[in-house]
Write a structure and sequence with these properties.
The structure is a single chain. This protein is α+β, with helices and mostly antiparallel strands and about 120 residues long. It has a 5-stranded antiparallel β-sheet with strand order 1-2-8-7-4. A 3-stranded antiparallel β-sheet has the order 3-5-6. The longest helix has 9 residues. It is globular. It starts with 6 loop residues before the first strand and ends with a helix. The relative contact order is 0.26.
């Protein structure tokens, strides 16, 4: 499921893996730094929870869902380029415990998101 701000949330077993989309990673260019919240922090849908810095710009990352951070991808802090290499796999950002699973219904499905980025 995808947010307007180019983040995704994959729910499995009641937890959500959050990251930025392939489109967003490619638009940023060479990623040189990633800032993520700590485990235990709360994220709020639509609010910035971190940032990605590339050679072009610094962009905030927005939470697609409300929830508590269960895990963060510390490997990205040491190797931020992995975010660009595999944003939907090894480049995930957070695993959160959604506090309002109904928010998933407000996100776009893959086909809707693909049509949105095709129109950009």
């Amino acid at each position: 499921s995808f947010a307007e701000s180019h983040e995704y949330a994959k729910v499995d077993g009641g937890v959500a893996t959050v990251g930025i989309t392939d489109y967003a990673a490619n638009a940023l260019g060479d990623i040189v730094f990633v800032d993520l919240p700590e485990v235990g922090d709360e994220v709020e849908k639509g609010e910035a929870f971190g940032a990605v810095e590339s050679v072009k710009a610094v962009e905030e990352i927005y939470a697609p869902l409300n929830g508590a951070v269960l895990k963060r991808n510390d490997a990205l802090l040491a190797n931020p380029e992995e975010l660009q290499n595999d944003p939907h796999g090894e480049g995930w950002l957070l695993v959160i415990q959604p506090s309002d699973p109904a928010q998933m219904d407000q996100l776009m499905d893959a086909a809707t998101y693909a049509a949105k980025v095709a129109a950009i």
